[in-house]
Amino acid sequence: MRIILSMLIALSVSGIGFFWILGIINDRYSIFPFFYRQSELLVDLESETVYLPVKEEEESRFTVRALTDMGEIHLCEDKNTVVSEMYDDGTHGDEQAGDNIYTCYIELESEETGTVRYYAKADGETSNSVDVYYFSVPTEEIINEMKSIEGELSEIESGYADENGYVPDEKLPDVMSEISDYVRELYERKQILDYEINDGNVLFRFHSGIPYLYSPSVEGTDEEGEELSLSVITCQPYEGTYPGWLDPYLELPDQTAEKLDGVFGNCSFSSETDYDGEEVTLSLIRSFSSDEIILWHGHGGYSAEYHSILGTGEMFDWIHHFGDAVRGQIVWLSDGRAGITSKYIDEYCGDLSRSFFYLGTCKSGMDDVLANSFLNKGAAAVTANSDTIFTVYDLLMIQSVMNNMTILNQDTENYHTLGEALELAKEQYGEDDRGYGIKDSIAEVLIFGGEQAENYRIAEYEKVDEESLRKILSEYTSEPVLNFIYDDFDNNDSHEAIAFCGREDEVDGSYVGIFYLVTGNGVQAIRDFGGYWDTGKVFDFGTEKIFAVTQYFTTGGITFYYQIDEDTIREVDGSGIGEGLYQDEQGRMCMTDSQYDASVDGSGHTWNVYYFYWDDGLKEYGGTAITTDEFRQYNGADDILAQIAADGYEVTSIYQRKNGIININCCDGIWNKNVRVAYTDENVEVSPVTEGYFYEEGIIKPALNTEIATY
Into how many domains does the chain fold? Predict the structure, then answer.
């Protein structure tokens, strides 16, 4: 829970800092003493694990940030007991050597309930502290106390619910207000350990360590290569709990699964993979594996601490689920069920390679944490909802997206990708759920997993036999094929292939080998790649496609671009400058440039971003120099310049690009910084490359490649 200091009273006793800090944890007050002076140079101590059952051992990663060279740094327990040295050399769990983030792993275990406080020390400096809590299995008396609190919450909600047990929209603010007041009282009476009040729910933790998520009952929303053989699984843990008028819509996931089974020979669905209500157990979730399509519809929720939560069909068990609940893998939901978090997937799910998950619940995609738990296990793509979503819209989108993936795209003569299918579904039922009722938030369906997920297909439709091209290649070379891209690269209704043959470097995972263009007329070597490379990828600009391959060096890389025309291949103008080509969240085509210009002395590695587009060839949006007075003509410019000046930086140059971006370079005599600003006809606002940051490091030039830049 985040602590924001609102008052600080400091006394000095023999030179030792003694603080009583009045803080706010979200909207609650807490008073606690610190008997040491917290350093301003040793900050942000964190532990991966802060809640544990007693008598269970778990390894936890601690990190702390040093703002200056401090020599050795140690992690200490209460009473100045050193438990481990912390490292910034790329070992002992340290992710990057020399970045001033010090790391260590220690084994956490306690025989008794209570709290152990940790802090980092170096050269007389002491960091902020981190408390690790240990809990024991709740006794019957404690369970009854928790049940009593749950009953009080239900009693409060019943005072606002209609005859069907749902809280009307107009009464939601009132019920949330009373529930929030009650939870604050519980905290003040020391009946709960901590809490957070979120938009639409309240999360708190009992002194037993068990987290509880309250969400009001609301009607009509869901809050709370080689062809693969895919098993289609439908999970509807809340089947039978919705009002009757939703029954026809609730049949859509199963109908969709049946259609996938009928269209694709590689998909199978039956009653054995149709799970409803209490059949959606934690055991089922643990059994998810590779090569599956999971269509999940039900209730979900979100909290700042646990992120997206999926309600299951299994009832919460205070004893059986205790350990997982303390670790934040399971949450006790206000309907009595067990909800799972991303940590549950991290802990219990195995290989999910090539699987696709459609998470049709409220707030399942409010951030990327839950989606990433599936993607990190190998899932090909995850689709989820950005906020509280109306049930009808949710179910219609599940059906439409999946149905569209069974339809051929006439432009590509292949089945629609997930990205294409979602766009068609939005054209049919709306970009978001605004047309399906009235609520404070707006929900849309999102795809997680990047370009791979956007391009995910359930199966490939082959107009031209790929196998024949592979056979042609095999007769030309016996080298292992590391990548084989089969496509109609020149959009002439005739497929070609680009193949990368060679070997993978066992040390760094890069590749050494030769790229070939394979057509029905034979094989043509593109070039012999003797260095270290990736295996290439294709960019589709609608009317034309280009093939890109990147060579890697110690500190960066250079990307080369090729275009195919009939049976010939040529290098594109602008090739060989900059690293990679990718699309940012705003849809801009970007390329990075590896430099050492973070400091005026030429040190400090930076990756500066430039912008490109395709217009009968690769082109760059060049930057035209403008003055600060010209920049001030935009609304919001004065605030941006004032912030730069207040931070001690002086503007050195400003470049305006026709894609709606202005780059401001500035320097304080030591560090070079730049600010990315998005502009319209009248307004400007900061649009950082890295979310949450005002500045980026380095100097942005007018253009990365002046030969293809346009102004």
Answer: 6
